Amino acid sequence: IAVNSLLNANWLEYDFGDVYSGEIKECQLLLTNKTNTVLQIKSLTSSCSCLKILKDDDIIPPSKTISLRIRLQAPKHRQAEVKQYIVLIVDGKDNPILFSITASIV
């Protein structure tokens, strides 16, 4: 999926579906550099402490793909529809990039 003129991603919106209270779920976000120059991740934040972003590097080499692990820790003792966001800023002109994560806590 073309995210902007610099990056492709395997998704912009990810739905974990039903997640049990207190359960941990993970998904993978793949980012591909479409340019012939190195891109650097300047900022990568989540909208909730229940959402962790695990990455090995801040550099995306030209025409290469990196993998980010996104970990959701479902709130305990609470049933709810959850919608959270990941905000990515790279050292290019098309910023920020917003990814959304949803889940149904059961």
The number of helical elements comes to 0
Global mean pLDDT: 93
Shape: elongated
Structural category is mainly beta
Q: Which regions have little confidence, pLDDT < 50, spanning 5+ residues?
A: none
Query: What is the distance, rounded to the nearest whole angstrom, between the alpha carbons of the first and last residues?
Result: 30 Å
Measured as a percent range, the helix fraction is under 10%
What's the number of extended β-strand segments? 9
Order of helices and strands: EEEEEEEEE
Radius of gyration, rounded? 14 Å
Describe this structure in a few short sentences.
0% of the residues lie in helices and 59% in strands. It is mainly beta. A hairpin with a 6-residue loop joins strand 8 (80-90) and strand 9 (97-105).
Describe this entry's structure for a reader.
It is built from no helices and nine strands. The chain is elongated, with a radius of gyration of 14 Å. The mean pLDDT is 93. The protein is 0% helix and 59% strand. It has 106 residues and is mostly beta strands. The chain has a five-stranded mixed sheet, with no helix packed on it. A four-stranded antiparallel sheet has the order 1-3-7-5, with no helix packed on it. A hairpin with a 6-residue loop joins strand 8 and strand 9 (97-105). The relative contact order is 0.33. It has strands at residues 7-9, 13-19, 24-33, 39-46, 51-54, 59-60, 65-73, 80-90, 97-105.
